[in-house]
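Researcher: Good morning. I'm working through a list of sequences from a screen, and I'd like to move beyond sequence-only analysis. For each chain I'm collecting a predicted structure so we can compare shapes side by side. This is the next one on the list. No need for commentary yet; just the structure.
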Amino acid sequence: MAVVYVDLDGTLVRYDRSFADMFASAAESTGVPAGEAAEAYYTERFFEQFAAFDDDPYLAAARELCAEYAPEANPEAFAEARIEAELRASVVAPSAVDALESLAAEHRLGVLSNGVGDVQRAKLDRHGLSPLFDEVLVSHDVGVTKPDRRIFEMARDRLPGDEHVYVADDPEDDIAPANEAGFRTILVGDPMRESGEVTNGETESADHRIAPDGFGRIESILAD
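Model: Good morning. Structure tokens for this chain:
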């Protein structure tokens, strides 16, 4: 029996709006300036807090944003609106859901994702995916962020199996460390690019490649 871990953002979950649009939506509903400078400031603060494993990077960044741009605004309200905008913009292809349901009948499934645990789980809940997964491993919950190999070792320990597979969209942060940890890797990306092509100056090393709407191929790949 294989254990198949899937990345969320950019792999299973995609977005029908830009992150700048998500910021603007939250800002407009909470009295925060919606300009490029404010959006850039919030984004920088968010990733600083995220990298430092703040308990709530969304709220911590919102507090800094409001202090700098809108002292009269409520940072809690902005943080909630920003998260809700991200959830509303999230999209999962029906074909991917069908493929995961089929895989779950024969294999154990897990999520292995960078992000904030409550928000990533909310995305799964929103699309009815939570029951399909035996494990949800999110970087902010465990204090280790991809591409750190340790998070892949945690994933192996949490769901033992005959082989471990990782399905993800980033050659450097996902595929390379998963390979090092002994995972069989499936890169989700442009079907016009062939495996082995040079990407960002490095040779792509995924074992397989599928198109973003090609989750249905995973079952046949596992059968090889």
